[in-house]
Amino acid sequence: MSYEQALTNLEKILACIKSGEMPLSELTKNIEEAQRLATFCRQCLTQTAEDVDKLLSDK
Predict the structure, then answer these.
(1) 38, 17 Cβ separation under 8 angstroms
(2) How far is CA 34 from CA 20, 22, 40, 55, 59, in A?
(3) pLDDT by residue (tens digit) across 26-57?
(4) Of 18, 19, 41, 50, which sits 20 to 30 A from 56 (CA to CA)?
């Protein structure tokens, strides 16, 4: 999964939760998925920042 796909999925889940349209029976599952996606996105951003820092320091 790419960062962009994960972010899109995360945004969809959050919008559904905020709208109140999500059935209570699915809420816990979707919150767990949102946490997983947020962690994945954070890791992608951290890795990208580290890669950019390394590239800039090599010059």
Answers:
(1) no
(2) 16, 13, 10, 31, 38
(3) 999 999 999 999 999 999 999 999 999 999 99
(4) 41
Which pTM was predicted?
Answer: 0.83
Cβ atoms of 16 and 22 within 8 Å: the answer is: yes
The string of DSSP letters for 1-47 reads --HHHHHHHHHHHHHHHHHT-S-HHHHHHHHHHHHHHHHHHHHHHHH
Which amino acid would we find at residue 38? A
55 CA to centre of own chain: 25
Nearby residues of 37 by Cβ (< 8 Å), 6 or more positions away: 6, 7, 9, 10, 13
